[in-house]
Specification:
Length: 341
């Protein structure tokens, strides 16, 4: 295995040094920058993260400043990036770290901290402290199943990660684990694409068994998630300069403390047929395809006493944290609403 380890690691590391993308968390790297980037990059594309990362570093340049910040301010800086529990956990993590005498180093030490799972702990311990822990995410699964021509059908991505972690650790470059981890992820992100991988540019093409037997497109074999379709009716109500919004309680996890236009059920109203229809919008979250229908409710009875409903001043919309899609849609919805009045 040592031989195979070198055979893959060496060309991969050379390629990485020459081709790595110039990303802000890679220039003058610090543990704080790595942690923030790893949190932001979970389920999110690099291009989406870039402006958020820059803004975050300006607002919260260190664990200490983040730990001392107000949660609302932190949530606001995350607005639009989705999966808001990451922002809350990042702040909780900063508070923990701020109270420690020394910064944790090993994967085991990181793993017990808020918001940190096996992938993030391995990324931080290897990139920041040169610990020998292999990272395994979707990109690494793709690269490994192709290089090793793995035919197993995984029931989902998490099972693939679990099964491939020992192999990833066997192949890990012991001398430069952080760079190796970044290199294999970079290869998955920029060369070994899901569709049409750029094998011609690949530094481990010679070692890639799926390339040799021309079965690249069939790896990895992961059972596709069933697409779930959902429909949601939402109600917009305006009162002078205010709009009625729902502040999601903590049990909403991913969207806790984030404001949204309330659903029909949240307003306690019934007859949607009597309300003017405004527009329909679609969004996707993972395997869910959600269609949202927006209706205008011209207040006959005050529904703001319903749980978690609040009248929010329109000029405060820039201050509170709205869910990404609602942030995008709210002003055109208010406009079409006002034309109904
Ligand atoms: S040769 Fe192609 S399939 Fe194999 S690792 Fe490289 S890019 Fe991926």
């Amino acid at each position: 295995m040592k031989y195979l380890q070198l055979e893959i690691a060496e060309p991969l590391l050379i390629w990485y040094q020459r081709n790595k993308r110039d990303l802000p968390w890679r220039s003058n790297p610090t543990c704080y920058k790595t942690v923030v980037s790893e949190f932001m990059l979970q389920q999110t594309r690099v291009e989406t993260v870039l402006p958020y990362f820059k803004n975050w570093l300006t607002k919260f340049p260190s664990f200490k400043i983040l730990a001392e910040s107000d949660e609302n301010e932190v949530m606001k800086a995350w607005e639009g990036l989705g999966y808001y529990s990451r922002a809350r956990n990042l702040r909780k993590l900063a508070i923990k770290i701020n109270n420690l005498e020394t910064i944790p180093k090993t994967q085991k030490e990181w793993l017990v901290l808020p918001g940190i799972g096996p992938y993030t702990s391995a990324a931080i311990s290897s990139i920041c402290f040169n610990e020998k822990d292999a990272v395994v995410d979707g990109n690494v699964v793709r690269v490994l199943t192709r290089i090793k021509n793995i035919e197993t059908e995984f029931k989902d991505g998490s099972q693939a990660v679990k099964i491939l972690t020992p192999l990833a650790n066997e192949l890990l470059c012991e001398k430069y684990p952080g760079d190796y981890n970044q290199a294999i992820m970079e290869l998955g992100a920029t060369v070994c694409h899901k569709q049409k991988p750029l094998c011609i540019l690949c530094p481990v093409q010679k070692q890639c068994e799926s390339f040799k037997n021309q079965s690249v497109d069939q790896k990895p074999k992961i059972k596709p998630k069933k697409i779930v379709k959902k429909e949601v009716n939402r109600v917009i109500s305006l009162k002078k300069d205010r709009i009625l919004l729902h502040k999601n309680p903590t049990e909403y996890k991913r969207l806790a403390n984030v404001y949204e236009i309330p659903t029909l059920e949240q307003t306690g109203l019934k007859n949607i047929e009597t309300m003017p229809f405004l527009l329909k919008n679609k969004r996707s979250i993972s395997n869910e395809r959600i269609t949202e229908f927006f209706y205008y409710y011209k207040e006959e009875k005050d529904v703001s006493s319903q749980e978690n409903l609040h009248w929010v001043q329109k000029h405060d919309l820039g201050r509170i944290t709205l869910s990404g899609p609602h942030k995008k849609w709210i002003f055109s919805l208010i406009e079409s609403c006002e034309s109904c009045i």
